[in-house]
Amino acid sequence: MSKAIMSNNIQGCKQLFGASLCTAITLVTSSSIAAQVQMAKLNNWRFYPDTKKLEITLSSSKTPQYFYLNEPPRLVVDIPDTQLGKVSTQQNYTGSVQRVRVSQLSANVTRIVLDLAPGSTVDANKVQLQPATRQNPTRWVLRPAIVKVAKQSSNFQQSPKNQQPTTPSYVQLPSTLPPITGLQQQPFVSVPPLNSNNPTPKSSNFNNTNSSNPPVPTLPNYPVIEFGQPLPKFR
What we know:
Layout: H1 3-17, H2 19-37, E1 40-48, E2 53-58, E3 65-69, E4 74-80, E5 82-84, E6 90-92, E7 97-104, E8 109-116, E9 120-122, E10 128-133, E11 136-143, E12 146-148
Parallel strand pairs: 1-5
Antiparallel strand pairs: 1-2, 2-11, 3-4, 4-8, 6-7, 7-8, 9-12, 10-11
Helix pairs in contact: 1-2
């Protein structure tokens, strides 16, 4: 807005509304114009995959803010009162940071998003977002402190469904066997027949060669003694 046009507008405002009201309107208009002049631009950004460091360069001094979002995991940096300059809006990487995206979130906010790899997260106590130097607050450095998520380990391994054990610990009996009633039968023991080729060992008390009919021993012929008679004398 040129000075001549502004001067004419002020004179017309004084004639219509008075000097005091026109002064307030002039201050509000000047503040709006100053706010538009103080908007910064994102001139450059660069990410280093080896050190996981993000550098941001602005046209004027602004203070970025960061926060973490999960599902999917990502680290977000919002720069207030900043508009997107002529910079790259997306870069892909390999490692814990897979992608960096830059966009104009609103008319006054520029957003930078670091998409993390699955199984990664951010240690909130170690994230650093600081100006490169105190004398130059237009250049900021983000160190995200990315760590791996610990997986839960199970103490047992589940076997696949419908899989029978290779070495069963039991034997399943057929279901067609009749139930056992009454006393339990003793097991039947079969004795093999005698082999006729193996002769019966001979006894040393008998001299008979026929082992099937052993001889009957002969007793001495003692006399019969009537009751009350003296016993005979033997020599």
